[in-house]
Backbone:
């Protein structure tokens, strides 16, 4: 029974079985198991060895048949080691004596052998080191592979424990059965946090070394509001948390009942509440929670969830699906915003030294027009199926914006030549997330139909903070006066030029900032579905007069602390239970 | 490898001792131990077996080594 404290980034309480994601590195973190579990680990080891034997024997036979006996004999050493009783005994001994997992024991023992061989003064023998590593990898893949299989083909509810969660991993998760996350690293705005909130499941990050404290199969409690994870809880803790979970669910149900009510202040001012999604399926929850449409469709997951770049048809099919679910409500599609995350860096020929400021997002698209056009064609074709709007991310210069619009125009010409229908007057907007665009919002506003302020990245660039770096994540704060000034100015520039302005960053869904944003005359809020009820509640409980007063006060403050403290106080006055 | 395969055919325990500068011993049935023994050409070896078929084991294994594993 272990209590670990981290950063709670998505509220709720879940009690479930743990599935632990190991990185596919060769270095397996030391993971302890309770002594009673040693026999189970030995069983896993035996199963893996048996399988490895079968696989290798089959491989050897095939190679011998196809190429010859001498070549087939290469595998004899591998088979010999896998059948070597003294080796197997060593690994078993490691498991039982030190209470570790089968993969850790395998790794430890094989490396010990590898080291011994390296010391020998014989070339033939030290060459065998490669073989030893090979055998280690083969066994580890079988042992860990068991778990990777499990993650995609879950048949029961689990919580996922990992060092960190990559976009590619969350894209491939079974959303029905994953009920919570806990990671070693991360902060409030890391990827894990964003996905957990979007899925409406509890998550705690920044736990330090949760992956070495939990083994697959452990019972785990994740309390996302308090930022606590309990491994193998005792009966008392179980009961306490089940109760907390019940209360939380009740509160959620109540909030959901208000979903059909309009997002209107008490003095009759109406705003739009939209949702952010990654997959068309998310739309169902978005509507359930009271969203009036989709303010941000992050299309990256089309690229992340598969090995190849999505074809035009795959794009089209996703957009058509989304529009069908929306039944006429608006859908804002953001073009590919990928590049500066581990997924594409790992695959890059020449990894960039500073990917966040590098060839990503719209820049990448403008460097690869055929790829860009594939997505744009699909968007334009889908424009006849519903209220589609297209938005370009990370625009930093007017030239870039104009180039992107030109490519879009080209696509329209091509489609016209091909006799394919589309909406020529599709609204075209841009994300305002780079400080240069925010500072020149007045000029940009003349060339688009709408703005969407991407506060997550805007804050990162303005404060020069990497929101996923726990060491500095504390500096990342929407309440920073400089950020607020930019937001205010962008909204103003939009109004002056008669275009609509929304905020689709996390700030829009954070109840702490609702009063302020209302008071700054923001009319469109787009957020993760689970955040909708609370934001709507605040809007319905206040007046524009009050919100404007709050905003005026806030804009006079000098520090984030002042801002947040004041906002907390003011919000509590109208909704006491919100914090 | 051949040595180990042959050794594994017998039920007796087989131990191989290496003389020379760095004396060592190994379980004749373990591939890993045998290669770590690092007995390269010319190293004097003592083969010892214990069990029901001990004599056959030693005979067979000695023959194997003397035939130079059929490699010449």
Residues:
């Amino acid at each position: 029974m272990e209590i670990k404290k981290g950063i709670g980034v998505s509220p709720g309480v879940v009690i479930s079985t743990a599935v632990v994601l190991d990185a596919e590195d060769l270095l397996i973190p030391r993971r302890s198991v309770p002594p009673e579990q040693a026999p189970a680990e030995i069983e896993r080891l035996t199963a893996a060895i048996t399988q490895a034997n079968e696989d290798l024997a089959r491989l050897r036979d095939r190679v011998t048949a196809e190429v010859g006996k001498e070549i087939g004999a290469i595998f004899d050493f591998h088979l010999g080691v896998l059948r070597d009783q003294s080796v197997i005994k060593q690994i078993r001994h490691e498991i039982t004596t030190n209470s570790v997992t089968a993969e850790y024991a395998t790794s430890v023992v094989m490396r010990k052998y590898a080291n011994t061989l390296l010391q020998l003064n014989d070339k033939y023998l030290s060459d065998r080191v490669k073989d030893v590593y090979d055998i280690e990898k083969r066994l580890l893949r079988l042992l860990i592979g068991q778990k990777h299989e499990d993650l995609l083909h879950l048949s029961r509810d689990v919580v996922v424990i990992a060092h960190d969660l990559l976009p590619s991993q969350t894209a491939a998760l079974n959303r029905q059965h994953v009920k919570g996350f806990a990671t070693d690293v991360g902060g409030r705005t890391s990827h894990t946090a964003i996905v957990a909130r979007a899925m409406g499941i509890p998550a705690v990050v920044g736990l330090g070394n949760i992956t070495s404290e939990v083994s697959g199969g452990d019972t785990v409690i994740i309390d996302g509001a308090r930022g606590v994870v309990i491994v193998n809880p005792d009966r008392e803790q179980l009961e306490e948390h089940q109760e907390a979970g019940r209360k939380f669910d009740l509160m959620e149900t109540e909030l959901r009942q208000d979903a059909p009510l309009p997002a209107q202040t008490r003095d009759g001012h109406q705003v739009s509440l939209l949702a952010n999604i990654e997959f068309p399926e998310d739309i169902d929850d978005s509507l359930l929670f009271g969203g009036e449409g989709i303010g941000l469709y992050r299309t990256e997951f089309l690229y992340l969830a598969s090995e190849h770049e999505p074809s035009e048809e795959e794009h089209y099919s996703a957009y058509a699906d989304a529009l069908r679910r929306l039944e006429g409500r608006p859908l804002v599609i953001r073009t590919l915003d990928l590049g500066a995350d581990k997924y594409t860096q790992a695959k890059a020929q020449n990894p960039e030294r500073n990917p966040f400021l590098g060839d990503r997002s719209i820049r990448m698209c403008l460097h690869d027009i055929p790829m860009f056009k594939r997505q744009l064609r699909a968007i334009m074709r889908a424009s006849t199926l519903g209220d589609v709007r297209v938005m370009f991310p990370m625009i930093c210069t007017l030239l870039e914006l104009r180039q992107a619009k030109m490519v879009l125009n080209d696509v329209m010409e091509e489609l016209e030549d091909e006799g394919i229908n589309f909406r020529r007057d599709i609204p075209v907007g841009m994300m305002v997330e780079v400080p240069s665009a925010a500072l020149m919002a007045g000029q940009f506003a003349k060339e688009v139909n709408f703005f969407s302020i991407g506060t997550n990245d805007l804050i990162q660039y303005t404060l020069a903070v990497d929101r996923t770096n726990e060491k500095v994540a504390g500096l990342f704060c929407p309440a920073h006066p400089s950020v607020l000034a930019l937001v205010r100015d962008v909204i103003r520039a939009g109004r002056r030029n008669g275009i609509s302005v929304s905020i689709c960053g996390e700030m829009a869904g954070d109840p702490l900032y609702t009063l302020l944003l209302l008071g700054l005359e923001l009319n469109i809020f787009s957020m993760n579905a689970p955040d909708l009820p609370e934001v709507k509640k605040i809007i319905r409980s206040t007046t524009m007069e009050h919100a404007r007063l709050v905003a005026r006060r806030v804009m006079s403050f000098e520090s984030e602390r002042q801002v947040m403290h004041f906002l907390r106080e003011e919000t509590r006055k109208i909704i006491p239970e919100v914090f | 490898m051949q040595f180990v395969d042959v050794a594994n055919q017998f039920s007796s325990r087989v131990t191989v001792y290496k003389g020379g500068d760095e004396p060592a011993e190994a379980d004749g049935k373990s591939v890993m131990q045998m290669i770590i023994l690092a007995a390269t050409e010319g190293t004097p070896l003592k083969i010892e077996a214990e069990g029901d078929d001990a004599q056959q084991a030693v005979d067979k294994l000695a023959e194997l080594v003397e035939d130079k594993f059929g490699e010449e």
Summary: The mean pLDDT of chain B is 84. The interface with chain A takes residues 1, 4-5, 27, 29-33, 35-36, 38, 40 of chain B (CB under 8 Å). Residues 54-66 of chain B form the longest helix (13 residues).
